[in-house]
Write a structure and sequence with these properties.
124 residues, four-stranded parallel beta sheet, single chain, 19% strand, 48% helix
Amino acid sequence: MHFADALTEATKRKSPVCVGLDPHPDKMPEGVSKDAAGVTAFCQGIINATADIACCYKLQMAYFELLGWEGMRAFWEVASYAKKEKGALVIADGKRNDIGSTCEAYADAYLNELSPVDALTVSP
């Protein structure tokens, strides 16, 4: 199904609410670990609290990428949780921008059949 059609259907089922998950290390609540495990648990908690109304989740990749490979693992875990456990659409907010071949590589990396990502933000 085309993403626009999936989004339209999801908004009809739940609401037009898209929850942004931007786990900025300096803005995490007190007591939440700023490592990948803490970010994963925090984001999954937000998903649990909003799953009944949110049609999609937009994960800000920069804050996950700040945590290195463990942050990228956390990104995939959170995206998979939102999609597979809660049935929500997932948008990777990466604002990727480059020449055709690397744009194609980004699409192949994030929008393949094994990925929990439904859409990827880009910058023209």
